[in-house]
Design brief:
There is one protein chain. By secondary structure, the chain is mainly α. The chain has a single domain, classed as Up-down Bundle (Growth Hormone, Chain: A). Helices cover 70% and strands 4% of the residues. A hairpin with a 2-residue loop joins strand 3 and strand 4. The longest helix is centred in the middle third of the chain and has 33 residues. The two termini are 31 Å apart.
């Protein structure tokens, strides 16, 4: 019995660890926005915020364009081989990042003019790498979500398994801001960073991902029956005919929009508050000293926001007697209230606190959306993951509004709108019709 239990846990642990890598690299991409704003985009003029947030836009564009690619691969090659293909995209994206960093360091004058902005070509290469990294995350998520939700792990239900996996993913997102601040840029002031500092850490990450890829190829990740259509099988109906799934896609679009907008842009809002003479204080201090390094409050903001995901998902994994729908109603209501207070008071810590509430929303929306889909699950997952493009739309839209308004404060109204849309799904949209249950 013990060996059988261990055999059940190992595939689950492998898939969860790979999801940790996705979370880590996703947040690194977001956290590079501020440093690149002060390096690549130092002379971007009135387009500075728009171009800065385009880093997240191109990352999540990969979800929209290639989310269905992962779904097709799952149906043709199975879960394990699709994971391997996703990791090859990660390697390609890291290589693009390295090329971008090298170009920025060796060819600083290789640029073009757009309006009043001077834009290095190396920044364009970075955006291409960001798109490839987003594609990798999309492909892997198409595997992780249905695999974890459908995996037969004794003593657990779907939303619990998703919360466990996304909780480990949150360890990656929580540690990434400190990796950028302390490892890549060595804890120095953001005004003094240099693009060449990216080269060595990215090369080390590339080597590590290659090692994980080789290990994954040797490990056994069994397929899960009845979660994907067999090769050549024709599905009787369109996945778009499932109302609770379609509305779930809308809900996840808005959820990822507000989740990523806060995680990616909260640092930029903090810089603005400091420029206005309203420094972001933490127990009365604007800086936290760790060892001999001076760590800015900005890395701490992102770490605490994503850390809230880790804590919240850990708590949610034990809530086996509270339905996903009830969890979603509670968290979205509170998140809308906190976002409103943050706008009124210009207190950035209310935005940070939303991370705790956002923690279980993905698991809740996903489990409610795919409930009863049977063999339509893998195809639905590909479409569902494509909706992560909301992270691109709202992050970039917020950056554009910040340039238009000349400030970030009122742009956070977007987050309030997103929370209310998700709440409406929890209250009404998630209700499943009888004809949408596949046996």
């Amino acid at each position: 019995m013990k060996d059988r239990s261990q055999n059940k846990i190992l595939p689950f642990a492998i898939v969860t660890f790979i999801y940790f890598i996705v979370g880590f690299l996703t947040t690194i991409n977001e956290q590079l926005q501020a440093p690149l704003k002060f390096t690549f985009l130092a002379e971007a003029g009135s387009y500075k915020n728009t171009l800065t947030t385009s880093i997240s836009f191109f990352f999540f564009l990969g979800y929209l364009v290639n989310g269905s690619l992962g779904s097709r691969w799952v149906n043709i090659y199975g879960y394990k081989n699709t994971i391997i293909r996703g990791m090859l995209f990660i390697i390609s994206g890291l290589i693009m990042y390295l090329c971008s960093s090298w170009m920025g360091y060796q060819l600083p004058d290789f640029h073009f003019i757009f309006g009043d902005a001077i834009i290095p070509y190396s920044f364009i290469v970075f955006l291409a790498g960001s798109f490839i990294m987003g594609t990798s995350a999309a492909v892997i998520q198409v595997v992780v979500n249905p695999y974890v939700a459908s995996y037969d792990l004794p003593g657990t239900q779907a939303v619990q398994r998703l919360n466990i996996t996304t909780g480990i993913n949150s360890i990656g997102t929580t540690s990434a801001p400190f990796f950028v601040t302390l490892v890549i840029f060595s804890g120095i002031s953001i005004e003094n960073i240099e693009i060449k500092q990216l080269i060595t850490p990215l090369a080390i990450l590339l080597f590590c991902i290659m090692a994980v890829l080789l290990l994954t190829r040797k490990l056994d990740i069994p397929d899960i029956p009845n979660t994907r259509d067999s090769s050549g099988e024709k599905l009787e109906r369109s996945v778009w005919s499932f109302r609770h799934f379609v509305l779930g896609v809308v809900a996840i679009f808005f959820y990822v929009g507000t989740e990523v907008a806060i995680g990616a842009n909260i640092n930029l809002f903090a810089f603005e508050l400091e420029a206005l003479g309203r420094p972001v204080n933490f127990f009365g201090k604007t800086d936290i000293i760790i060892g001999n390094m001076d760590l800015g409050i900005h890395a701490l903001l992102s770490t605490l926001y994503w850390g809230g995901f880790m804590i919240g998902r850990g708590i949610s994994s034990f809530l086996s007697h509270i339905s996903a729908r009830q969890q979603l109603i509670t968290t979205t209501s509170l998140a809308a209230i906190l976002a409103t207070i943050a706008i009124i008071t210009q207190n950035i810590w209310f935005l940070v606190a939303i991370g705790l509430l956002h923690s279980s929303m993905w698991s809740c929306i996903y489990s409610l959306s795919i409930k009863g889909l049977g063999k339509y699950t893998s195809k639905a997952s590909g479409i569902f993951v494509s909706a992560v493009f909301g992270g691109a739309v709202f992050t970039l839209l917020q950056g554009i509004l910040a340039d238009v308004f000349g400030a970030w404060r009122w742009t956070w109204i977007l987050c309030v709108i997103c929370e209310l849309v998700i709440l409406s799904y929890a209250l009404w949209g998630s209700r499943q019709r009888k004809e949408d249950i596949v046996i």
